[in-house]
Amino acid sequence: MADELLKVESIEKSFGKQKVLDGVSFILNKGEVKVIVGPSGTGKSTLLRCINLLNPPDKGKIYLQNKEITSLKHTLVPAVRQKIGMVFQHFALFNHLTAIDNVALGLLKVRKMNKTDAYKKAIDELNRVGLADHKDKYPAQLSGGQKQRVGIARALAMDPLLILFDEPTSALDPELIGEVLAVMQALAKDGMTMICVTHEMGFAKSVANEVIFMEKGKIIEQGLPEELFSNAKNPRTREFLSKISQLYGETGHK
Amino acid sequence: MRFIEKIIPYIPLLTKGLGITLELTILSAFFGFIGAIFLVIGMLYGNRFFKILSTGFVTLIRGTPMMVQLFLIYFGLPGIDIRLSPLTASIIAFIINSSAYQAEYLKGGFLAISKEQLEASYSIGLNKWKTIQYIIFPQALRFAIPALSNEIVYLIQYTSVAYTIGLPELFYISKNFASKTYMNFEIYVFIGIVYLILIYIVTRATEIIQKKFYIPGFDLSYLK
Asked: Between chains, do A106 and B124 touch, taking CB under 8 Å as contact?
């Protein structure tokens, strides 16, 4: 039987009068990679922010390892977030800290590791994303792709149960996308559980276990990547996927 | 030069006055800064009570003249049987006043930190206070250095207002000198130069501090 890690149960979220999520449910198993696609403004990012409680849902429940996290006291929330990594569209590195300090901060201040161990682990994580040589650079001295890889290393350092990727490559120059996708692909192959909001179809095809198409706060269709890309049942899904495959190319970026 | 003859016996007094000016400036800047940290945290992250309290305080202090605050403390408080020396009254008034202004400067720096960085901090499990301590504050302070240095420059000059309650700081001594010797022109040029030198030192010190804490990405155009 599949090992259920995260269960999202009919969550709803509104900002003012705008209903951004309107009853979204899915189950994510351990080691699974889900890719969420859909037009902008359909609540994909909000969904990720609900899952790690940055924007807790208004209605519905989220379970992590069979424990409900949506009704926790706010003092217990940071402990949950620690287990859910997040990678941001605009990298969101701490600009006053070097690459290695970005990665080590959570280990030092949240996990309370001693300096030697924290920096040892931080360098291991930077190695994993191929950036150990750049450990002493500040974010402003790194390229977009390098920044995002530091962002991934920062999330990895906390040994999360799963990582949420919020359009990790959409702010990057085309020639920098590949290096980030390569890291993500390697993570997926290592068995990392991931939810990725991305339009990189090549990535979805090569590593996703399931693709979810969302529109207007709802899941319209979900399925295996090959099924959805070649044989979507819903006309909206077909239309959207054909548009982005034109835009990003059939195979996506290598 | 008659002026030089006259000023030489005044040098001990002027030095004392300079000492008082510096004491008042340094204490106001330092404790004003400490106060400003509490105020800005109250304004931005406090609960309703602290938000209203700190915002109200800053609005009140920035909305009334420094002289009114100083006179209220020195001449007003004896009405409720609190009698303070000119020095104590000035120190209290300037700390209060400066804390409100510095809070506003810091607030600008705090608000300059992107929301995504805060989300990133939360996402690795830091709570709100640790996020303020490790993410927001170190960056906000760097953004606020120019404004804070401006506050020190302002304090050096504005502490001269304390002469009105009889505090023998630099300006008071000069005025005293002028009324005895009638050398108004000479003494005010002289004292102007003293203030100018003080402010030049602060400006240079700020530049050194900025260079010391310089981080790529926090470029301040005039340092280039």
From this structure: yes
